[in-house]
Amino acid sequence: MPGKSVKVVVAAVVAAGALAGCGGQTRVGTAALVGGDRITVTSLDQTVRDWRGQFKDDPVANQIRANSSGLAPGLADQESETDMEGALSLLVNFRVADRVARDAGVSVPDGLADQTTALMDQRGGAGSITLASGLPRSRTRDLARFIATQTAVMQKFGADLGNAQSPLTVQAAQQWGLKFQKAARDMHIKINPRFGRYDAAKVDIGPVVYDLSSAETGTDGA
How many separate helices (H) and strands (E) can be counted in the chain? Predict the structure, then answer.
């Protein structure tokens, strides 16, 4: 299943340098490459700056994030060391989800994303939920589409969307997770070592682990 940042989002909705890696280096200023799609450091920096400015002034977002992370209200915004990694992980996983849908032959109409946004508004506010996930309000539509994509794919796999505890829903969720991991592996995701390393098994960005052959080169050893 998607990593920790995405889990915060799903829980909220339900409850309320140079880049180096496999194949060598890419252009300076790249935060991630996802199936050939480039996320720049500049755009990531701006995304996180926008998020920080909005998040600190949104008490609902702070409460949602605190409830999901186990931090006391008002302390969630102190996790600054993970802001960049969390935002980048979501931006990467948005692209992976699109690949999962394509591989499964599932289309995600705009109407389903609209319905998801409306649901988020009913469960604490779409903008606040987006902020709680670690992204600015401008990314609300992207987040809604991600959730809508998971809903559509799980529905194809036989999920009973009216019963989250149904064996059919649990099985569909497991299939979604496996398809997500496979898509992430197939897309050969590369992360700038400044931000960590993408783990396709966890579909999340974690710390770079250097070995003797890569410690002096700055590569991620992929």
Answer: 8, 5
